[in-house]
Amino acid sequence: MRMSKLFIRTLREDPAEAEIPSHKLLLRAGMVRQVAAGIFEFLPLGQRVKHKIEQIMREEMDAIGGQEITMPIVHPAELWKRSGRWYEIGDDMARFKDRNGRDYCLGMTHEEVITDLAAQMVDSYRQLPFMLYQIQTKFRDEPRPRGGLIRVREFTMKDGYSFHASFEDLDAYYPKVYQAYFNVFRRCGLDAIAVESDVGMMGGTMAHEFMALTPVGEDTIILCDRCGYRANRQVATFLKPTPPDEAPLPLEEVATPGVDTIAGLAAFLGVPESRTAKAIFLVAEIQAEDGSTQERFVFAVVRGDMDLNETKLANAIKARRLRPAHPDEIRAIGAEPGYGSPIGIRRENVLVVVDDLIPRSPNLVAGANKPDTHYRNVNYGRDFTADRVADIVAAAPGHACPVCESPLRAERGVEVGNIFKLGTKYSEAMGATFQDEDGQIRPIVMGCYGIGSGRLMASVIELNHDPHGIIWPVSIAPYHVYLVGLGTAKAHQVVEAADRIYFELTQAGIETLYDDRDERAGVKFNDADLIGLPVRLTVGGRGLERGVVELRNRRTGETQEVPVDRVIQGVRAVLDQEWARLRAMLKEETL
RNA sequence: CGGGGAGUAGCGCAGUCUGGUAGCGCACAGCGUUUGGGGCGCUGGGGUCGUAGGUUCAAAUCCUAUCUCCCCGACCA
Fold first, then answer.
1. ipTM summary value
2. In degrees rounded to 5, what are phi and psi of residue A469?
């Protein structure tokens, strides 16, 4: 491709709207353009990267028996009503009516559609297992898109779904997907890690998220350097400290005027935060057994030195949704914001959930449910009890690893993919059943697996750039060679040499972007660095006089001169080295 | 949805407080010069100042409403 013909416009300055490196570089290198909040166009260079990423996904999915299909982006409401998600999902789903007034939505994921497909196609265990996938557009009307391609509303996702006759068969297949996912990311030059994740509302039994560790990530990952334990903070556990062994002391009211925070309380009374209990007031939407949902006031209690983990709490009480309670709701149950404890509150419609460390912690300081007053020596069992005792606090750096007790560490990560044992939630709802060997009708057991291609592309940039621009891994670089021709009309012998080398590279099947523009060397070099192809080849008058051209590795910065008649070999050598580097990242993973 | 910021040429910005016929840099077109890390000179094209009302002799500037975008938070199947 000739740069003079390429539909591109590189930018010298960072667009004002971009904050994070990948967003700035994608815009500056002319790979994408934003059309609206969270809605992007992929321009020719960006499109080539995206296409290569998707081709890698295809190959890895095919390698584990996947078959590619395309499902619609517009879904009839009827399918989503059958799964119930038409009613469960809020404004994230874009809905509309057709000319006849029928309800539709834009697909935010495709469990409903594909389960309906399976329901129609599958009758017998003989047809199982199989895995279908597609690479297709999703639309989720996110409340807040951000970070360029990191979090968008319209995006392309590789979503795969496997169908099995038994949980055992799904269990056997899941590790293959796990390995295939590592292969996808590593072949894209991304060293992602897998973490345990929340199965929550998807109703599955096991799930992993693949995380690209970068400060721009929206998730917090808790990890142990010693034993390799790693989990999303939403589900991460830790070994809780052993509380002091003390005999319960008499409950004692203490005036604490104006002290309504844990930090203030600990300072005021001269006790460590670990000797206090804090109350968090929430309202949960809980689904009853008959399917109806009801709101319940949730009174959560955790130790003062720890933070509530809402995901754990929601799972512990099977809440569909949690929101902070309003002050008047808090007072209605007899508690006082800032001075709350479960002692003496009205318990009728209140669900008291305490962290499992609370019953073991004697003589805590807790609120007295009236302004400016706390209790000393609060003891679980004697002074109050709970409806549920569970682990509901968030793991944090410094906490002890649940496996090896070493101090845990936290990092930020971008979720580039996830895999999920779905089970029979959708097959039961959508009537996707099969007849087993014994003639029994059973629901198909499902798994689902997703990777966002744009987010993956942005994550690769986050981890592969320098102050000059992007450094594409060779596997997904839009082209492999950036050929800089430094000749102009007056130095036509240089132009001719560059043209000839461009021809030879192309003939040799080497993907080349030929900068044939009438620009100064600096402009071309800067664009080459910005666009970030693995190899830069410079053809200039100075070198030609000695019969050489300059070959530069974008990643390492290594520069060498090669004879004009050995350009192809020279380029191939550098590219081979880059491919070898990616291959070296591949390795076996065990679950 | 809560908090903060911003909409002026393709991009980055000044001008707004204090109303008076819209400007700078880059980019773009032409010419010349230059030619291995974003050169220089001359000439030129391009903006109903987000939109709609209002105040005024006069509005980018003041008032009202509204839309959009970005950041932090909430949310994220």
1. 0.95
2. 155, -160
